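Example with several molecule types.
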Amino acid sequence: MNTPPPEEPQVAVAVAQPVVQGLAIEDLLSAILRFGVYACVGLVGLGTTLSFLNHPEYLSSGEELSRVLTAPAPRTFLEILESARIAQGRGFVMLGILVMIATPVFRVAMSMIAFRQQKDRVYTWISAVVLALLLLSVVLGQSHG
Amino acid sequence: MTPFLFTLAAFAASAGAGLVGSLVGLGGGVIIVPILTLMLGVDIRYAIGASVVAVIATSSGTAAAYVRDRLTNIRVALFLELATVTGALSGAALTGFIQGKWLFVIFSAVMAYSALNMLRPRAALNSAPPQLSPLTRRLALAGEYYDESTQSLVRYQVHRPYFGFGLMYFAGAISGLLGIGSGALKVPAMDLAMRLPIKVSTATSNFMIGVTAAASAGVYLARGDIEPLIVAPVCLGAVAGAILGSRLFPKLSNRFIRSLFVVALLFISVQMGIRGLSE
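Resulting structure tokens for the full complex:
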């Protein structure tokens, strides 16, 4: 099912060229994604553990849940940092979520840099436009939301 | 229910959604939102906020492995992201002008139609051997990967890149308009129009959905829809499911992935149809 008909013309597969010594773009992007996910999991895991340590009643009381589900969350970057500084579990969780949200945008930025390094002008431009549109949609979304 | 039990339940549900999402190239929001709202009593706002984070978690968690294994084609992904991000922007601008009700019904039908088409053998669709577009050559829209399930090297190239690009713009606009994940439209576009191998289509879709979800996550964050103690187990669960899924994915047969995707697409199609008709 996967083998193309033999008469089909073939396009040369773009061979992955090293960006930095011995590192193909694919490997660079894979490493960025993996690092982002691990950092997020670490922060969110730490935050969750802290929350349960600070609130032992979370393990027993059924009434706590409705309170937790409606409590206002730290929203701005400064609120999140402050919350993490005073070792509130929620602050660490939100830091982890910020890392998770930033990771895909960061990978577009890094592919732009990597393609530029390879002097692949077309894909440098494609990545740059995608990045610009992404940032534009974030800005527009903030003002609309 | 205690917060502890809630955490365990949300983790388990999200792990299931992450597992399925990682195999078929969808975010898994369609599974997470109903479970959170209907079974765990979470407010719809927080449920949607959490599901957007879960989509990013599933995307990044699986893409780390699929990009490394060259299952994801990053050139195809970037080329198509141009279309989906532009589409999402225009879709968001059109909200308020177009009635959601009929769009849901129409897209329910489009999804059911593409799902059934994806079950037809390729030879039947391939009546005339397609001419390779100069754009495919210009943008090097081709690739190869080693398929563990068949133990063979698979080479492929993108057919009809303009048509695929147009469909992706459409997919982005619809997801911007209706606020649904666009993986359900991306995979059929890559499969039916661009003729990519099913594993490349789902892996590339997985890679792409993180970017669109990240753009909207910023909005939910600013609105205060992301509640840490709800999002935490959902995010961790989605990552766990995604990592498990990305281990299984290369070994699963193409036929299995395709069938699983068709089942998931029909499920979403029914869900959208009901939503449209009941609005």
